[in-house]
């Protein structure tokens, strides 16, 4: 029988720091006093909601398809019979409704009644984010089973998260905002790539054709290196454009470079599980250091 601790496990709290990293970066660029703004905190709650929807839906989708049956790492609630498929489906619907409600408050706080079409655009974006979170593993045409998960993560965890939160504060766009947005999006892909490398054998068995399954482990390692290094490049370019900004954020890339070495040496993909947390927390550290650099040194 499921309990509160099982639902907390299904929410996968270790993924939440990664999900809010883009909001921190975009908000810091948009307003130096972002921590005092209700826009920031509502955006944080909305993003956490999207992440939990995705985690619940992933547990449900992979659980009923049998993909998680032989997986390594932490338990999955539906696959292990701890939470029923119907209960998890209800949780997805309830969490979606709550998150969309918070998103409405966020949009109203940011735009009020004066920017109707912009508000509608963000509402549609919110709906698309919920649909994308669910369709990753749920349904016959789940795009996570066709190798498009990386694209989803890049768009929503990178560009939508960073650029969207920046726009909520400033009500305008600048091209250079896409540099840190790309960086955060790529590091989010890196976490997914590690996850897919770890699960490659199980995914092959259950016909979950992730990008790693399609390209193979060796190419996935090369891909992983490009992701990390291009992320670093984008952050450095942005900082050089804003020459007064501190390079303090480079500290966060130290564990990421160690991660590259670990990935290259790895011969048993299932042992990469601990690396997911390292990359996720490094991304969160990057967002915090970048925010400090932007607010206090720009």
What order do the helices and strands come in, and which of them pair?
Elements: H1 4-11, H2 16-30, H3 38-65, H4 85-111, H5 116-135, H6 149-170, H7 178-198, H8 200-205, H9 211-215, H10 217-241, H11 253-265, H12 273-297
Helix pairs in contact: 2-3, 2-6, 2-7, 2-12, 3-4, 3-5, 3-6, 4-5, 6-7, 7-10, 7-12, 10-11, 11-12
- The helical percent reads over 70%
| Beta-strand content bin | under 5%
Q: Structural class of the secondary structure composition?
A: mainly alpha
Bulk shape: globular
Major β-sheet, in short?
A: none
Low-pLDDT regions: none
Strand element count: 0
pLDDT averaged residue by residue:
88
Order of helix and strand elements from N to C terminus:
HHHHHHHHHHHH
Query: Alpha-carbon distance between the termini?
Result: 53 Å
Number of domains: 1
Radius of gyration: 19 Å
What oligomerization state is this entry in? single chain
The count of helical stretches stands at 12
Q: Can you characterise this structure?
A:
There is one protein chain. The protein is mainly alpha-helical. The chain has one domain. It has helices spanning 4-11, 16-30, 38-65, 85-111, 116-135, 149-170, 178-198, 200-205, 211-215, 217-241, 253-265, 273-297. It is globular and about 50 Å long. The model has no long low-confidence stretch (mean pLDDT 88).
List keywords for this structure.
single chain; 298 residues; mainly alpha; 72% helix; globular
Quick gist of this model?
The model has no long low-confidence stretch (mean pLDDT 88). With 298 residues, the protein is mainly alpha-helical.
């Amino acid at each position: 029988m499921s309990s509160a601790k099982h639902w907390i496990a299904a929410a996968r709290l270790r993924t939440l720091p990664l999900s809010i990293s883009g909001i921190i970066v975009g908000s810091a660029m948009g307003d130096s006093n972002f921590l005092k703004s209700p826009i920031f905190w509502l955006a944080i709650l909305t993003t956490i909601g999207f992440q939990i929807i995705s985690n619940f839906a992933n547990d449900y989708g992979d659980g009923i398809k049998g993909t998680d049956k032989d997986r390594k790492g932490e338990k999955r609630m539906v696959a292990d019979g701890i939470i029923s498929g119907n209960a998890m489906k209800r949780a997805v619907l309830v969490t979606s409704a709550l998150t969309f409600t918070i998103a409405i408050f966020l949009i109203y706080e940011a735009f009020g009644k004066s920017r109707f079409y912009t508000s509608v655009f963000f509402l549609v974006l919110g709906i698309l984010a919920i649909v994308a979170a669910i369709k990753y593993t749920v349904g016959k045409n789940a795009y996570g089973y066709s190798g498009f998960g990386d694209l989803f993560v890049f768009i929503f965890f990178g560009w939508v998260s960073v650029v969207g939160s920046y726009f909520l504060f400033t009500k305008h766009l600048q091209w250079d905002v896409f540099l840190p947005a790309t960086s955060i999006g790529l590091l989010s892909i890196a976490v997914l790539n590690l996850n897919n490398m770890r699960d490659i054998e199980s995914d092959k068995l259950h016909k979950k054709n992730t990008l790693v399954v399609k390209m193979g482990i060796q190419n996935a390692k090369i891909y992983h290196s490009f992701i990390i290094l291009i992320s670093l490049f984008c952050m450095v370019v942005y900082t050089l454009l804003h020459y007064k900004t501190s390079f303090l954020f480079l500290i966060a890339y130290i564990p990421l470079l160690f991660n590259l070495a670990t990935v290259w040496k790895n011969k048993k993909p299932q042992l990469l599980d601990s690396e997911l947390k390292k990359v996720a927390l490094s991304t969160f550290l990057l967002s915090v250091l970048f925010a400090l650099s932007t607010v206090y040194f720009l």
